[in-house]
């Protein structure tokens, strides 16, 4: 269809067609059905009529429908939810009705009602969900819905592992020792920045937590879909979970056994001294997004913006990693829209090359539906270009966007925001903001402060600070010497991993 519209009607015709298609899809999409499901569910609780169904299968079907509806509105439908109800609406309604369910679950209600109330609290993202789910999961007589959930989680983890092109990992590929343990009293600190589902193996995390306090950064944040992260809330000490977005942190604050901190991934971007400043600007806009995940990153939305009349003269650079077939598909889409002369596509650049490309751009645009922090936004700041960010994005703290470094705007205001920023770039000084407020040194110090508070609260001594964290590379040590010093501790940690049946091969250096 895009090929048919492109050459014949030009970019304006494509834009009008895409706009009409979006309007039709919006009116008839699953999003509105999901809203209706949630409205009906919240009304049942508000009216006190939830437990009149009396059919266990009806409750099971309702919970499944509500879970899917929450996923739809909080993930795929975020821009529409922002416009219609506000992004906090589902969480506010869940919070409002938690006490109603707890009263039924803990009170003198019939046994079946008490069971159904506990299942609602455990299987939906109510405040305190993980604690309720662990209680039901640890029972010897697990309810069939709990058994089904555990099986579904395992299937998803197995599918992720099967999709991994890399089947053999070194420990430093997914975790990093920040501070070595010093028996008998002082624990170490272990950062988990990838493959968090690997630690769902029964007993593995608890064994590691005997020697380490855990700091874990979920790659995509938390939201409603990651109930399996509850394993990190059931340890000897509280687990620090790095969550960039306030939405994730508010949910985590209600879970026992975890301490949310507003630091993860991109917050530790290295203050690279090789950033070329003052380069000639060739592109108006740069879009840095994974080609393997274009629906979440929303490449299509930027292409649509470029087809709008007021942005029809702008040039754009797309960079990012991805499989060759996905990059090729995107190039075909650019061609179908007749944008070859205005859009340049680069893929799989070495990280050291990214600053050189960014330096040739005037501003960045980031439109992803969800992240956990976002490295590419900070890469723009480091290269001294401001960034426009969609306000519908989950997993980023918009307090980090200031008049010094960028703009946050809802989807319908993006075109005007692009024009305004490009016409008034002089007031921005994003690199200065980055060096003053972000980067690996500033944020490693902040994480160190959070950890010291936790160690003091747990009664552990604190003799040595953590090492500097980075956001890239196989081991993420800013100073390679730190990794060499910690090698004996890595070998000891590897011995622990080998006590458990791992679905991936973990090898020494």
From TrEMBL:
Source species, domain of life: Bacteria
Cited Pfam families: Glyco_trans_1_4 (PF13692)
UniProt-recorded name of the protein: Uncharacterized protein
Species of origin: Desulfococcus multivorans DSM 2059
